[in-house]
């Protein structure tokens, strides 16, 4: 199990949660590491004590100190290393549970063109510190009712809006913010099945022209460019996490030949895949 593991609730015949949203408490030892494809869920990590180094797709070795939090979006490739013994709460959610939160984030999308994004940790506001410490007490006591988790999620988003400016919320949740959150969700669900933009348009139920226009509005980049970037991140993840031979990885990602795969890696990373794998593993094992 890793901090990206979905929460496990106390079984309840009277209340069945609609979404896989909830909180987990972790105590990690110095030196612990994990690499995981974060496919279905978003995560907010609240570091109470200690220090982590986190890599998420193209953002590498981001430090998260005690009393800081960081947001990791779904459909990303993530790894972490515990730099000093740490305690943390991890909030896992696949989607917003009410229309108020969804509307708030969709309104913020109007300002995304005004900023450039980089992944970074944010200080936990004093009000949120009290909230997080109370969660720790609940979870340590084994209070793991799914209804409580849903109520605490609603409270969390209220506190976030109260404690941080719109600009701060925009930067923190930037990968999640779009004009149409439902469209973003279906794209993320379907793109692993698509070999190209035309297939992704078909899988999401749009004709190609409408899809390209809608994608540009909601993701801020052309669909082809976005898919190439996602492919690059996934290739890096496969090279570092598995010992699968390079020819097999090339086939799985739809390259016509090892030479084509080699050319792609040189263009995206500056080196051929074998050397990239060696560099990535050396960096991760430091």
TrEMBL record:
Top-level taxon: Bacteria
Record keywords: DNA-binding, Transcription, Transcription regulation
Pfam hit, one: HTH_18
UniProt KW DNA-binding keyword: yes
GO MF annotation terms: DNA-binding transcription factor activity; sequence-specific DNA binding
InterPro entries, per database record: Homeodomain-like_sf (IPR009057), HTH_AraC (IPR018060), MarA-like (IPR050959), RmlC-like_jellyroll (IPR014710)
Domain HTH araC/xylS-type: 181-279
Cited PANTHER family: RIGHT ORIGIN-BINDING PROTEIN
Protein name: Helix-turn-helix transcriptional regulator
Organism of derivation: Bacteroides faecium
Source species taxonomy: Bacteria, Pseudomonadati, Bacteroidota, Bacteroidia, Bacteroidales
